[in-house]
Write a sequence for this structure.
């Protein structure tokens, strides 16, 4: 590790211990979640329901892990699918340059598969019309339905490095079932990113029209899952780096 990288790691660790920084991050998360700030952004033209910090974290993670398959639950408008597809396109491009090979954009090597219980027609049309659509597969159905899981598993065949993002129904039971079903698909060294764990840190009753709340959300599911699955660990360095994230304690690394 060079001096600059060392300095960055030390600063991230120090930021993570800094109570003022952490509280400022929490205060911003509370206020901005109330204001539906996560709906303010787009990635290459498609609305993405994320915070910019998590988008940058995903960029760093995808570059580091170099997956050849990303599986996402929760498509909505398709922004996160397009983000993943764009990073995978960049990896294919960089591989071609490094290996002095010709790149055939009609035959993308790395792919994304997205699952959603309700792919709205206008979203499907826009995603299918996107220039990156030929590396995206979409499956409609509940992410934990056996027939959906069978299709997802089929997409993992022959893949070397698989990364998973869970961002669908945010109840404890649903996310725990997703973790049990999707985490085994994650290859060692890669990640299962579980979004919206921040619900646990919001004031109780913040989501009156939703079934999730404090005590029943992705973070409670992650904690239950980790008790039974020592092959996964929270990557705390990402939390300390971001400080503002909808996925605190949700960047799960498969360590073996
Ligand atoms: C927060 S949005 C996804 C946002 C998207 N990942 C992004 O970053 O732009 C949640 C999505 O999960 C979907 N969803 C809800 N319950 C689901 C289930 N049981 N299985 C699959 N998808 C589900 C909803 O239809 C909705 O589109």
């Amino acid at each position: 590790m060079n001096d600059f990288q060392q300095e960055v790691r030390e600063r991230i660790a120090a930021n993570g211990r800094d109570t003022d920084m952490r509280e400022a991050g929490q205060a911003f998360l509370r206020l901005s979640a109330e204001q539906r700030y996560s709906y303010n952004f787009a990635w290459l033209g498609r609305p993405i329901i994320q915070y910019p910090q998590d988008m940058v974290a995903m960029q760093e993670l995808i570059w580091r892990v170099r997956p050849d398959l990303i599986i996402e639950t929760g498509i909505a408008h398709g922004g996160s699918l397009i983000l993943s597809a764009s990073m995978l396109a960049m990896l294919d491009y960089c591989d071609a340059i490094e290996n002095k090979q010709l790149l055939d954009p009609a035959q993308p090597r790395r792919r994304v598969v997205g699952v959603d219980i309700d792919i709205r027609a206008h979203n499907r049309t826009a995603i299918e019309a996107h220039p990156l659509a030929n590396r995206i597969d979409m499956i409609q159905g509940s992410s934990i339905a056996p027939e959906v899981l069978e299709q997802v598993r089929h997409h993992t065949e022959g893949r070397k490095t698989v990364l998973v993002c869970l961002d669908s129904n945010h109840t404890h039971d649903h996310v725990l079932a997703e973790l049990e079903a999707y985490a085994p698909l994650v290859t060692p060294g890669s990640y299962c990113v579980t979004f919206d764990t921040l619900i646990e840190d919001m004031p109780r009753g913040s989501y009156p029209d939703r079934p999730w709340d404090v005590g029943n959300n992705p973070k409670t599911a992650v904690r239950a899952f980790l008790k039974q699955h020592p092959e996964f660990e929270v990557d705390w360095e990402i939390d300390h780096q971001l400080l503002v994230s909808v996925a605190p304690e949700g960047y799960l690394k498969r360590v073996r």
The chain has nine helices and nine strands.
